[in-house]
């Protein structure tokens, strides 16, 4: 590029800087408009109406035109806005194809669209609302509180999600997904709404501050360095696999090498 | 096609060459001379230094196990300096943030301290664990090598038995070590062990109370396992390894067949300087590989599992690999339970745990004797079998490996389900059938492959090596001339023993009186013997080879309408 044409670069600079400015503006907008704010307006009827229209396009083939449920999908009356926000923001809904469990995938909906659908579903019947960020804020927790979050995680969550939060198997092709890189908001919503195979943990069982401690522990785990390659963090199965392949496999190659060398050059 | 079969290369030294020059021994001077005058070390040393070992890569598998054991001892000593085998509850105040302030046993606390606050502690812990994994794996492949080459045959049955005891004891050593850190995973493993003990009918409950000094988990088990792990079992292992190697030296090492190798000699390199350098070098390679593994691959990150609490469990709770097949058997076993009177019979645990392991180790221990009973072979064997020359044994071995491997997969059924996007139930149901059908299929296929290889060997000896040149005769026929085999290769392909199946002997004489015959063969044994070696392909005889050579010279093998006698080859 250094040896390119300076004139040409100058002509391209204008449209490029325009695009850059637009991207910057857009990003700024996206950063400044929190998704919670969209949910906060959920009472407005215009939003519900728009949400209903969106719902009928994207969700109704399985959940019914009024969210009453069909043989393909459950009723959404009373699941609450938090449920919709979790399922759509993590890309689980709409499902790509019917299956035992909706996997996490890239979400193609904007926060605004999800907010509208959430508002509509919330209007069908009372359910858990999208939480305020103060409900799961873990930034002010002490080390001891976060360690307690670890105890809570191992007591309530690790039986399915695994102690290192790497996920685990459930019957008939269902699974508990890994929890690394999941937004704190979505962890909170999942605990309260019990998506897919997960049980619902109500505030009486796990209060908000306990969820914050669990989230704090999970985020702490993500920061911890591992002692070498993690081998998937799956425990003895992968350790055994690597022990055999690298240990026995590698040493067999060495053994072949050693015994192929005679004492005298022939 | 024309690649010759591997022939064991000639090595310069025979064990039988031992110059008996008495005078040479007394010339040692210096400290060695001082020792020799008092202990006679020169004579022993000379014999030891001139001891010949044959060269084959698979003979080093046992050495991997030996060297891993040495690494286990060395790293284990380091770990005992810091580890505290106590179940007393204390509050964690170390440098790992995510556990700070939690109540935990001193055993777990000292493991964390060792991992995070002792210089090199985590590295040594990881090397120790990898060495344990490698130790068991090397013992297993070593045992497979012994099995498939028939190295356990007379006079080495005792050494095989010692090996079986070593294998099972090492498993207990590994299991006790796995339980020591007292993290959630090791505690779950301990709970599994407790359940397995409880499942033993009638005495199980009593034994459980005895082992745990009361109710599970109690406060004694870590200290008891510690004693077993660092003192009792290693001491027995050391003694048995000593006996294992003494017998190896006494019996002399087996060797693969080849020209110049007989039942009475050992062809290979002497201990000094060749084997000492090779074996010594291999020790450092094993040690180096283990250090690399410990330094680069994390193993058993106990801090992720947290302190053990019987109310908690983690998904993916598995034992280390050597208990994985038992874990798999328990996982795929249907839940059967009987209640007879006041007793509970937990077949779902008892059968896949105690009964399965009992059958497995007993059959391993008995196999050399069973085989020699079936074949009626009571001779000494110092030349190894090529696996193809014992098709039924090889088939049984592969069937056993298949059985073990399928159970092994069962032990990781959840990991298989999540990582290959399968249904956990489907994996389990598949394994429930495959565990029984798989070994049968593996046996049939393996035996057929062995017999085909035997046929190919026979054909090669009789007709030589295919030259790849197609020749057209004046009357239009196509043929491929065969190159005759080298003498050495022909010897290697024909030296093995062909077992003639035992025939049933009459148990009454012509007057109907019972004969007292110590060598009597029952009908059952004769049928077993036929099943065992009845299908083996006959080794070409001298006459057949001469005949084939003559035949080949006068009339080259025609491609259309082969002239060889099909009944001879495919009987």
What would a concise description of this structure say?
The complex is a heterodimer of chains A (266) and B (571). Chain A contains eleven helices and two strands.
Report on the architecture of this protein:
Chain B: It is found in: Cell membrane. In chain A, 54% of the residues lie in helices and 2% in strands. Chain A has 266 residues and is mainly alpha-helical. Chain A folds into 2 domains: 96 residues, Cytochrome Bc1 Complex, Chain D, domain 2 (Orthogonal Bundle), CATH 1.10.760; 120 residues, Cytochrome Bc1 Complex, Chain D, domain 2 (Orthogonal Bundle). Chain A has a two-stranded antiparallel sheet. In chain A, helix 3 packs across helix 6, helix 5 packs across helix 9 and helix 9 crosses helix 10. Chain B is mainly α and 571 residues long. Chain B contains 21 helices and 11 strands. In chain B, strands 1-5-2 form a 3-stranded antiparallel beta sheet. The longest helix of chain B is centred in the C-terminal third of the chain and has 40 residues. Chain B is globular and about 95 Å long. At the A-B interface, helix 7, helix 8, strand 1, strand 2 and helix 10 of A face helix 6, helix 11, helix 16 and helix 17 of B.
């Amino acid at each position: 590029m250094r040896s390119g044409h300076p004139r040409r670069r100058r002509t391209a600079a204008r449209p490029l800087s325009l695009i850059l400015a637009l991207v910057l503006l857009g990003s700024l907008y996206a950063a400044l408009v929190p998704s919670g704010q969209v949910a906060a307006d959920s009472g407005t009827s215009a939003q519900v109406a728009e949400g209903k229209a969106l719902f009928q396009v994207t969700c109704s083939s399985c959940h019914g035109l009024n969210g009453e449920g069909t043989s393909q999908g459950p009723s959404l009356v009373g699941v609450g806005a938090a449920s919709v926000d979790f399922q759509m923001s993590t890309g689980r809904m709409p499902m790509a194809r019917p299956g035992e469990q909706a996997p996490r995938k890239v979400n193609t909906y904007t926060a605004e669209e999800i907010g509208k659908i959430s508002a509509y579903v919330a209007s069908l019947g009372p359910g858990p609302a999208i939480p305020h960020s103060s409900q799961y804020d873990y930034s002010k927790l002490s080390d001891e509180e976060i360690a307690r979050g670890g105890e809570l995680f191992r007591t309530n969550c690790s039986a399915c999600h695994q102690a290192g939060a790497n996920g685990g198997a459930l019957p008939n092709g269902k699974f508990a997904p890994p929890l690394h890189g999941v937004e704190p908001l979505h962890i909170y919503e999942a605990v309260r709404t019990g998506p897919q195979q997960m049980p619902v943990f109500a505030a009486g069982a796990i209060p908000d501050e306990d969820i914050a401690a669990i989230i704090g522990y999970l985020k702490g785990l993500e920061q911890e360095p591992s002692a070498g390659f993690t081998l998937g963090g799956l425990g003895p199965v992968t350790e055994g696999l690597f022990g055999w392949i690298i240990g026995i496999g590698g040493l067999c190659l060495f053994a072949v090498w050693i015994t192929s060398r005679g004492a005298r050059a022939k | 096609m024309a690649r010759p079969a591997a022939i064991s290369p000639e090595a310069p030294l025979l064990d039988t060459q031992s110059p008996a020059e008495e005078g040479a021994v007394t010339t040692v001077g210096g400290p060695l001379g001082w020792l020799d005058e008092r202990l006679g070390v020169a004579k022993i040393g000379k014999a030891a230094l001139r001891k010949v070992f044959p060269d084959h890569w698979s003979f080093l598998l046992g050495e991997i196990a030996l060297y891993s054991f040495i690494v286990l001892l060395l790293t284990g000593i380091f770990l005992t300096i810091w580890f505290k085998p106590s179940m007393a509850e204390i509050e964690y105040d170390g440098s790992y943030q995510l556990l700070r302030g939690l109540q935990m046993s001193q055993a777990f606390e000292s493991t964390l301290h060792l991992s995070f606050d002792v210089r090199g502690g985590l590295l040594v812990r990881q090397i120790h664990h990898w060495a344990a994994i490698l130790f068991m794996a090397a013992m297993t492949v070593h045992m497979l090598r012994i099995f498939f080459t028939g190295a356990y045959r007379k006079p080495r049955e005792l050494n095989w038995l010692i090996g079986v005891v070593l294998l099972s004891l090492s498993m207990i050593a590994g299991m006790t070590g796995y339980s020591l850190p007292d993290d959630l995973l090791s505690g779950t493993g301990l709970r599994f062990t407790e359940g397995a003990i409880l499942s033993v009918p009638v005495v199980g409950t009593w034994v459980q109370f005895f082992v745990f000094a009361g109710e599970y988990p109690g406060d004694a088990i870590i200290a008891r396992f510690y004693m077993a792990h660092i003192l009792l079992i290693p001491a027995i292992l050391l003694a048995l390894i000593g006996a294992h190697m003494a017998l190896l030296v006494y019996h002399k090492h087996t060797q693969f067949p080849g020209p110049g190798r007989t039942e009475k000699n050992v062809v290979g390199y002497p201990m000094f300087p060749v084997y000492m350098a090779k074996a010594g070098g291999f020790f450092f390679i094993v040690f180096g590989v283990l250090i690399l593994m410990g330094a680069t691959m994390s193993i058993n990150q106990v801090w992720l599992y947290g302190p053990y609490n019987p109310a908690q469990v983690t998904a993916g709770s598995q034992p280390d690999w050597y208990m994985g097949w038992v874990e798999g058997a328990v996982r795929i076993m249907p839940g059967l339970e009987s209640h007879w009177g006041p007793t509970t019979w937990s077949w779902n645990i008892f059968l896949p745990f105690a009964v399965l392991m009992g059958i497995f180790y007993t059959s391993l221990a008995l196999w050399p004797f069973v085989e020699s009973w079936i074949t009626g072979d009571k001779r000494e064997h110092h030349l190894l079998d090529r696996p193809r020359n014992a098709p039924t044994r090889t088939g049984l071995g592969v069937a056993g490996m298949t059985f073990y491997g399928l159970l092994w997969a069962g032990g990781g059924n959840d990991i298989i389900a999540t990582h290959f996007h399968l249904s956990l139930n489907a994996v389990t149901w598949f394994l429930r059938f495959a565990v029984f059908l798989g070994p049968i299929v593996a046996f049939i296929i393996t035996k057929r492959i062995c017999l085909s290889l035997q046929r190919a060997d026979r054909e090669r000896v009789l007709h030589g090596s295919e030259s790849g040149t197609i020749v057209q005769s004046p009357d239009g026929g196509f043929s491929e001339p065969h190159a005759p085999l080298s003498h050495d290769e022909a010897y290697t392909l024909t030296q093995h023993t062909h077992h003639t199946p035992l025939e049933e002997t009459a148990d009454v004489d012509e007057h109907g009186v019972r004969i007292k015959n110590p060598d009597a063969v029952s009908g059952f044994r004769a049928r077993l013997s036929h099943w065992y070696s009845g299908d083996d392909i006959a080794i070409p005889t001298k006459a057949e080879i001469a005949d084939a050579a003559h035949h080949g010279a006068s009339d080259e093998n025609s491609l259309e309408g082969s002239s060889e006698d099909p009944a001879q080859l495919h009987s």
